[in-house]
Design brief:
Distance between the termini: 56 Å
Helix content: 25-40%
Number of domains: 2
Number of strands: 21
Largest sheet: 9 strands, mixed
Strand content: 15-25%
CATH class of the largest domain: Alpha Beta
Bound molecules: pyridoxal-5'-phosphate
Number of helices: 12
Radius of gyration: 23 Å
CATH topology of the largest domain: TIM Barrel
Oligomer: single chain
Length: about 425
């Protein structure tokens, strides 16, 4: 459920008409609903009720400071994957003890910044990284709390570009080598092992891969405890999928996911961390775009819209589906017609949907790309010298621009000319 509904034939974000925002900020733009972000965070928080837990929002999904602050004020921790994300989390007021640092390529500098500023734990992905964390911690005269990310070798049954838990993926260490790597960690004085980490992929629409992975984590917990490691925290990653195509998808609910966690891991008495990103932000955001032209091709009609692949790259990158709806609700009984919906960028890949049935549209009409809140604005670029599009946050009947659209001059003047020119 989200807070983007029609009222009297007009699409609203909470209590604000989308057309009003479009008139104020111009198109295209992203718009997020505070109530939806908070609702999704609370669904996870409540799903783990009765268990010691922390929901760490995977901020790579949508990392605007206003979004982070909205979630942080509700009690969310953050999962970060770079120094930039770490500093964004701190800037949004998230205390270090609620920030976990994931990612396969943490540099010594990133580790130093996090250890100095405070960190809940590093999720270590390799032995060389472990050695660097140890060295930096000793240099700073401190001890770094760590988990080790194990790769349980399960098939997440998701798009190949977002599956991470198979042995051929770059993430984590093979679970078969965990005993050895934990023994190494325990021998390093700059590290304190606090638990196990596991994240098998994104946009999972079935609980079974999670079950297989968490059963392996449970078994490993017992093995490592028997070896004398104080395993007291289990970080289970993110990855729960969302319905991108509402008419025929019903992925598992957070409450079902929470129950699975309790069933597979509850007996161990560990603190549970989860790192959802997509499910919190995905359906909390829309990209709004305007039709520039309706072009009749041979046997097909194109809607050429002012949003493009540089603004929302998921269809081009993952063949992702986004439901597309008109901002002005068609009258009941209006007949749909098929459109190819494309952006103005000079790439055939700049196609959002093919032969999508929509009520007839004309130049100037507004459309909304649903489920664009996660991996949307954060993946945008200025390809074709199209300035980054603004982000807007709605809270009840208020809205605010939370990232301005740069002017053309600002975009151009980011470049500098060498002296010899
Ligand atoms: C991407 C990622 C997440 C979030 O995944 P979602 O599918 O957005 O929930 C969580 N943890 C790690 C380590 C990740 O890389």
């Amino acid at each position: 459920m989200d807070h983007f509904l029609y009222r009297d034939g007009a699409l609203y974000a909470e209590d604000v008409p989308i057309s009003e925002i479009a008139a104020a900020v111009g198109t295209p733009f992203y718009v997020y609903s505070s109530a939806t972000l908070l609702r999704h965070f609370k669904l996870f928080d409540e799903a783990l009720e009765g268990t010691d837990h922390l929901v760490c929002y995977a901020m790579k999904a949508a990392s605007n400071q206003a979004i982070l602050k909205t979630l942080a004020q509700a009690g969310a921790g953050m999962d970060v994957v770079s120094q930039g994300e770490y500093l964004r989390a701190k800037a949004a007021g998230v205390p270090g003890e609620k920030i976990v640092f994931s990612g396969v390529g943490k540099t010594a500098e990133e580790i130093r910044v996090a250890l100095t500023g405070g960190i809940r734990q590093f999720n270590v992905e390799s032995e060389p990284e472990m050695a660097v964390i140890n060295t930096v911690a000793l240099e700073l005269g401190t001890v770094a709390p760590i988990t080790i990310r194990v790769n349980p070798d399960v098939d997440a049954k998701t798009h190949a570009k977002i599956a991470t838990g198979k042995s051929e993926n770059k993430f984590g260490i093979p679970i078969s080598r965990a005993k050895e790597v934990y023994a190494l960690a325990a021998s390093l004085p700059g590290l304190e092992v606090v638990g196990i980490d596991c994240h098998i992929g994104s946009q999972l629409t079935d609980l079974e891969p999670f079950r297989l992975a968490y059963e392996k984590v449970a078994e490993l917990t017992e093995v490592l405890r028997a070896e004398g490691h104080n395993i007291r925290r289990l970080d289970l990653g993110g990855g729960l999928g969302i319905p991108y195509e509402r008419s025929n998808e019903a992925p598992p609910l957070p409450v079902e996911y929470g129950q699975l966690i309790k069933d597979t891991l509850g007996h161990l008495g560990c603190e549970i961390e989860i790192e959802p990103g997509r499910l919190i932000a995905g359906n909390a955001g829309l990209m709004i775009s305007k039709v520039i032209y309706v072009k009749s091709g041979e046997g097909r009609d194109f809607l050429i819209v002012d949003g493009a692949m540089n603004d929302l790259i998921r269809p081009a990158m993952y063949e992702a589906h986004h439901d597309i709806v008109p901002v002005n609700e068609p009258a009941p009984g209006t007949e749909s017609q098929p459109y190819d919906i494309v952006g103005p960028v000079c790439e055939t890949g700049d196609t959002f949907a093919k032969q999508r049935a929509l009520a007839p549209l004309s130049a100037g009409d507004l459309i909304a790309f649903r489920s664009a809140g996660a991996y949307g604005a954060v993946m945008a670029s200025e390809y074709n010298s199209r300035p980054l599009i603004p982000e807007v946050l709605v809270h009840e009947d208020q809205f605010a621009v939370i990232r301005q659209r740069p002017t053309f001059d600002e975009m151009i003047n980011r470049d500098t000319i060498p002296e010899w020119l």
